[in-house]
Amino acid sequence: MQNAIEFHQVCKRYPDFYLENLSMQLPEGQVMGLVGVNGAGKSTTMRLLMGLIQPDSGSVTALGYELPHQQVRVKEQIGYASEDMRMYKNETLGWHMRFIQSIYPGWDPLYADHLLKVFDLKADQKTKGFSHGQRVKAGLLLVLARRPKLVVLDEPTTGLDPVAREEVLSELAEILRNEERSVLFSSHNTQDVEQLSDTISFLHKGKLLDSQDKEIYLDRWRRVLCTGISDASNLSLPGLVRIKRNGSLHELIFNQNPDAAVARLNELGAEISVVEPMSLEKIFVAAVKAGVHI
């Protein structure tokens, strides 16, 4: 399987930020969620991918083309949308649609009409009257109706109200179920990422903590509540990354071999009341606080 995106030891330094040795791959036909708090390096990664900035070192390729040197040849096949996309305020959405159609031969007018209905947008409305949510949905329409091979979405649901957010996520989920296209989208909202992604990459302070199949994270991490042990920090427990104690109750977070960890606790005479999987949000927070590999 070929990769739609490849970052190889990419570095980019700013006065107050450093993206350090970023290496990750997105196989063709898959969806990767890029997760991190604000300032983690998500937007820098997106800008590198779109050829808007050059890496100080390392290489970036998209659909087999090296960026930014070959970006003209590949831009037609990449669709990029962000939550702050600019439009001509005194022109209608329909004008923007016709403009994009004149540039990109892959424009699908029937699909564009479908997205107008799904997103509850009016082609004859001037964009200066759009709400933030309408602008985001209009930007997605202009990108998705081109049918690009690679879709790059930078914080696509930021600032959306719950109804608009659900409309956007539902349509993206439908697109990803029905089509063989590659998608990279960034978000600080791990619920969005968990809902849509095949693969998840975690960025923190300019470093890639991990990049793996979503199910690996969800299968590997567990939260355990137990009593009957004196000091869990002195025990040899496989995969233990975090301990919180409230009186006799211990909260233990494990990032590998949860079954082996539970078996070991039972051997030590612990009384286990809860063994539960963790959401991606809780996994990310626990890993960052513990300073461990996800």
* CATH top level label of the largest domain: Alpha Beta
Overall number of strands = 14
The CATH topology of the largest domain is Rossmann fold
What is the count of helical runs? Answer: 10
Quick one: CATH superfamily of the largest domain? P-loop containing nucleotide triphosphate hydrolases
Helix-strand sequence: EEEHEEHEHHHEHEHEEHEEEHEH
The structural domain count equals 2
Q: Determine the strand fraction and express it as a percent band.
A: 25-35%
Which sequence of strands runs across the widest sheet?
6-7-8-3-9-10
Structural class from helices and strands?
alpha/beta
Radius of gyration: 22 Å
**CATH architecture term of the largest domain:** 3-Layer(aba) Sandwich
As an assembly, this protein is: single chain
The geometry reads as elongated
Low-confidence stretches: none
What does the main sheet amount to? 6 strands, mixed
Mean pLDDT: 91
Percentage of residues in helical conformation? 25-40%
Gap between N and C termini, in Å? 25 Å
